[in-house]
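question for whoever is on the cluster today: can someone run the full assembly for these? two chains, 606 residues total. i dont have access anymore since they changed the login thing
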Amino acid sequence: VAADDPGRVLVPTEEDRAAAPPGLRVEVWTGDGEPGGDLGDVTFYVAPYNRPDGITVIPRLTGLKAIQVLTAGYEQVQPLLPDGVSLYNAAGLHDASTAEMALALILAAQREVPEWAVDQRDGVWHRHFTRSLAGSRVLLVGYGGIGQAIEARLLPFEVEVTRLAGHARPDQQVHGVGELAALLPQADIVVLAVPETGATRGLIGAGELALLPDDALLVNVGRGSAVDQAALIAERGRIRAALDVLEKEPPPPGDPVWRAPGVFFSPHIGGGSATFVPRARRFVAEQLRRWAAGEPLLNPVDK
Amino acid sequence: VAADDPGRVLVPTEEDRAAAPPGLRVEVWTGDGEPGGDLGDVTFYVAPYNRPDGITVIPRLTGLKAIQVLTAGYEQVQPLLPDGVSLYNAAGLHDASTAEMALALILAAQREVPEWAVDQRDGVWHRHFTRSLAGSRVLLVGYGGIGQAIEARLLPFEVEVTRLAGHARPDQQVHGVGELAALLPQADIVVLAVPETGATRGLIGAGELALLPDDALLVNVGRGSAVDQAALIAERGRIRAALDVLEKEPPPPGDPVWRAPGVFFSPHIGGGSATFVPRARRFVAEQLRRWAAGEPLLNPVDK
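^ ran it for u. tokens below:
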């Protein structure tokens, strides 16, 4: 790409193209098949949401100056980015969707929704008391946008929320990760809402799980790598889990997570709900406007 | 029972007896087997929660002056009560438990928890976008204690709540039931939290369901009689439902509700969760104190 050539922009949907400012050369690639035209003239690439080919195409975009991912996490893109290419994420766009999935998982586990669903399918009526969310002590691990959105939705349920993040923030009553071991024994429910980083990989291992009281619930809406899944499976029956993310997605056939008692999972759909779509379109439109105007884009991330 | 005989009190748990004031003659009957002693000298009866024999014993309590049920609804007791026997319900005790079940059902339906549970059991990974709760228009039918508790839990989810009750309360922005037909076409989610009364039986029939937009969700945590279940089944595929209460509990084998697409149910456990237990024990202790002291009991209901 010549230095004075603004190049092409690749966006994932027709709505994104329709919302682009006039004068910008914008084409749509949904992540299916091959992107059209000379890939070397793509300067700004908005990767399609959750399409593996959307990532693997990156090394072929040899003129790339900036890439926008529509996920909050970006650990899968980092290794593919040459120096000098700016990376932007979608922090904030998934907060509402992911937070409501966290509540869906917590409530489903406490009130046995997965069990009732299987009972209904099997023609079984097995009425009995369940656990409740009310009265529970919740340890919220991760206090970024998603963590704060989870907390806002949790508070009316008559729970006691304790906040923990990588670094203590005394002014917000957020404990630092060094206090994790001290806080786990007092948690009925632990909710993980942390990105994948060197600091969060294996955050909840055998030692941490052993500190949880009997019948505690572990909820994960961040990244599967935060939990040592084999250690969790080893605690099945004593600790319950409701997971939107797993170490391997999908888990291999025969993996014990498919059938572990008290372990429920959904297929990584925390961010993937209807409310994401209009938010993503509004966000991409704003990024395209900034790109065309030469203004700084929103949500730059350190690679 | 002689006029000056305070008689016996029957309570459902040992904790209730232990909490009774000294001097009161209190015995435990859990609802299993036969109550002990002369049933004619029971003047105050605290019926065990959700035990059918707890209701059928009532006609044999010939000296009864007052009966306490631990449910909010009391339609099953009314036909058995002689004149002069006072009836007290447990309004308020189930609010937190039932409201959190309403949210569990709403979130489960929007985020497909029952489907993921069955997929997990079947070894299927079928990742796809789901509906969201955020951005939904919720029509809340019933604005008593449970309805208000549901609303408090719903509001942080970025929804628009419209309130409806038997009678309009303009000062609280509560619409009257006469506006139901006008409001249904604007509802993505309808939540029923009404008791069983002459006015609520069949409240949602074929005509009301037909007014709902495609893909609307009907949630019921009140009483099954509020919904014409055959009409709901006829709308399966167009309208979704998440029901904690049904017309017949359990539904007969072969009833289409067991397998209707988009219709999920739990076995009437809205009020039946762990958080109810300490609330019930505190409440019974207070009623026993009032009974012994000759003070008016809490929660009298019109028969």
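summary bc i know u wont read the tokens: The two ends of chain A are 23 Å apart (CA to CA). The mean pLDDT of chain A is 95.
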